[in-house]
Specification:
With 294 residues, this protein is of the alpha/beta class. It is built from eleven helices and eleven strands. The protein has one domain: P-loop containing nucleotide triphosphate hydrolases (Rossmann fold). It has helices spanning 26-32, 85-91, 122-128, 143-153, 160-173, 177-180, 193-205, 223-236, 249-255, 273-278, 283-289, and strands spanning 37-38, 47-56, 59-69, 74-78, 102-110, 113-114, 129-132, 211-215, 241-245, 258-263, 266-272. Helix 5 crosses helix 7 and helix 7 packs parallel to helix 8 (223-236). The protein binds adenosine-5'-triphosphate.
């Protein structure tokens, strides 16, 4: 599929880290990922992760994980604390580059492009694969400028009216426009926690992402704000792929189409969310969702 990601790098996949060989055939990757049960792979993936290992110095946090991110899906990642969910999520837009002890090997492609290729500029990559964090983190700027900042630095607009349009459209998509249209010059930090999180989602949307990563996006919100953000995530799926880490299994059940269960750095099972929560294949998944541990 021809997308703006072709601007990231030449469109040939290569292995990352110390693995010098060219990318392995998909069938080989599936074979080596045989320990994951269920349906980690899809027909027309937006992101393709194969044999991903992550180390913090000598300590291995992710072990040979292979999984696809589908188009227009919410993929939930669940598992006990410390199992590596956030570490894996952060590989998907190279946020782990900011951790000096962190080393990633394997292959991660966005629309067929290796995001770890040395020629990839992480700034446009992180626009294509946006991120929303646990705690809302608006810039210390006005509501308008929180949204306008990304389009300005990425040169997405020619003039003020185009910028105004992106700000309005992004806030509408994030379900925030009606609440803020009369106070666009107020600081982003003057909004409630739930509104701030929707502002951060609008900020990610404004730079035309393809995938949005969310790391426990509702854990700092009250139940009403959580419900609004969950509804928003469900709507956003029609335009984006969303990968969400959550501790709340009921949230995963409410908002996702597929769920991935991690345990001690291993990807144990991936499947349709309903199946994972009603009839999982793996004993470890069952033990977790029935509350036997975790
Ligand atoms: N910056 C870091 N330096 C060293 N080790 C780290 C770092 N970040 C995470 N780890 C370790 O990697 C492992 C996976 O951590 P990670 O935060 O990815 O798990 P998680 O499943 O997201 O946990 P939680 O649900 O508690 O947020 C843990 O053992 C953790 O201690």
């Amino acid at each position: 599929m021809e997308t703006a990601t072709s601007a990231l790098t030449p469109s040939f996949p290569v292995m990352i880290g110390n693995q010098a060989e060219s990318v392995m055939e998909d069938s080989d990757a599936k074979e080596t990922a045989r320990n994951t049960v269920g349906t980690p792979f899809v027909d027309a993936p937006r992101m393709t992760c194969r044999n991903v290992d992550v180390f913090y110095d000598e300590k291995q946090a992710i072990r040979n994980v292979s999984i696809d991110v589908d188009q227009n899906e919410v993929l939930a990642m669940i598992g006990p604390s410390g199992c590596g969910k956030s570490t894996f999520l952060r590989c998907l837009n190279r946020m782990n580059d900011t951790v000096s002890s962190c080393r990633v090997t394997g292959s991660i492609l966005l629309d067929g492009t290796d995001i770890y290729h040395p020629s990839v500029d992480v700034v446009p990559l992180r626009a294509k694969v946006g991120m929303v964090f646990q705690k809302p983190n608006p810039f210390p700027k006005s509501i308008y400028d929180n949204i306008a900042y990304g389009p300005r630095i990425h040169g997405l607009t020619q003039n003020r009216s185009e910028l105004d349009e992106i700000v309005e459209t992004s806030l509408k998509k994030a379900g925030l426009w009606k609440e803020v249209r009369d106070r666009l010059n107020d600081p982003g930090t003057s909004l409630s926690g739930g509104q701030q999180q929707r502002l951060c989602i609008a900020r990610a949307i404004a730079i035309s992402p393809e995938v949005i990563l969310m790391d426990e996006p509702c854990s700092a919100l009250d139940p009403i704000a959580t419900a609004i953000v969950e509804e928003l995530i469900a709507e956003l799926r029609t335009q984006f792929s969303i990968v969400v880490v959550t501790h709340a299994m009921q949230q995963a059940a409410r908002i996702s189409q597929r769920t991935a269960y991690f345990h001690l750095g291993n990807l144990i099972e991936v499947g349709a969310t309903e199946k994972i929560f009603t009839n999982p294949l793996h004993q470890l998944t069952e033990d977790y969702i029935t509350g036997r541990f975790g």
